[in-house]
Amino acid sequence: MNAPDASDDPTPLALPRVPRLRVACAMQSDTGCVRQHNEDAVGCMIPRDDDPLALAGALAVVADGMGGHAAGEVASHIALRSMLHVYYASAGPPPQALAAALVAANDAICERAGADPACKGMGTTCSVVAIVDDRAYVAHVGDSRIYLLRGTAFRQLTQDDSVVARMVRDGLLTEAEARRHPERHVLVRVLGTKEFRPAVAPRGMPLQHGDLLVLCTDGITDQIDDATLASVVRSHAPVDACTKLVELAREAGGADNATVAICSLQAEPLAAQPDPSIRTTRETRAH
């Protein structure tokens, strides 16, 4: 007796269905109480479902520029534009696309600094998260940060590229000592250097319904401790949380520009999603 041919089975195998995560993003940036210019930049791209770019997912970026006068603002906005453009123009997987975007941003900043004396020596931090399907891909340079709030657990996904942060990791300083150290803002990696090499995690981090990703510059984290930051994000809607965090940074002295973006992940009801086990056709017209 011959084994049954699967192709003759009139009942197709149903593919497992899992909720799709929808991304929403709230953002706010403030000059603070001391600085004359806002050298931070923040942006988010969430393509529509019918946009071919939707396959690349959503992208959120924060950057904190440096360089004096308006040069820091130039550097951070170059980084933002480069990340958004190159990431979505890349045909590679998310880690490869993020690495290419970081390199392009670094090259563009170096080129502008070399061509414009007013921008000589400028640089910027850059913290980026790409959310593709149910995974987050993180790219980072500098001391801006990305956090994950999942239920009651709040943790930092990035490591600060600073002299003091390295001392903490080496056991030479405590976290409390690091917060008061006079060299806490001395960075060892930024965009805008000739020998820059991107460091992007090769695997994405699984996401869940209800997760919140928080991206912020040190104008937030220098003024607000992690426990307070987590409490605000947990107890407010993302838009209100952004406003509250900026308010708290200003109340603490507002010594620096303060920028935050909060990405929320919500599962779309299965009934609203197309069933992948059902094949559909669309009408096409010849031109």
According to DSSP, the number of beta strands is 11
Helix content: 25-40%
N-C termini distance:
53 Å
CATH homolog superfamily: PPM-type phosphatase domain
CATH topology: Phosphatase 2c, domain 1
Low-confidence stretches: 1-15, 276-287
Following the backbone from N to C, one meets helices and strands in this order, namely: EEEHHEEEEEHHEEHHHE
Percent of sequence in beta strands = 15-25%
The general outline is: globular
Structure summarized in a few sentences:
The protein has helices at 71-89, 94-115, 163-169, 175-180, 218-221, 226-235, 238-251; strands spanning 20-30, 40-45, 58-66, 123-124, 126-132, 135-141, 145-150, 153-156, 205-206, 212-216, 258-268.
Task: Report what the structure shows.
The protein has 287 residues and is an alpha+beta fold. The protein has a single domain, classed as 4-Layer Sandwich (Phosphatase 2c, domain 1). 29% of the residues lie in helices and 24% in strands. The chain is built from seven helices and eleven strands. The chain has helices at residues 71-89, 94-115, 163-169, 175-180, 218-221, 226-235, 238-251; strands at 20-30, 40-45, 58-66, 123-124, 126-132, 135-141, 145-150, 153-156, 205-206, 212-216, 258-268. The strands form two sheets. Strands 2, 3, 4, 5, 6 and 9 form a six-stranded antiparallel sheet that branches. It has a five-stranded antiparallel sheet with strand order 1-11-10-7-8.
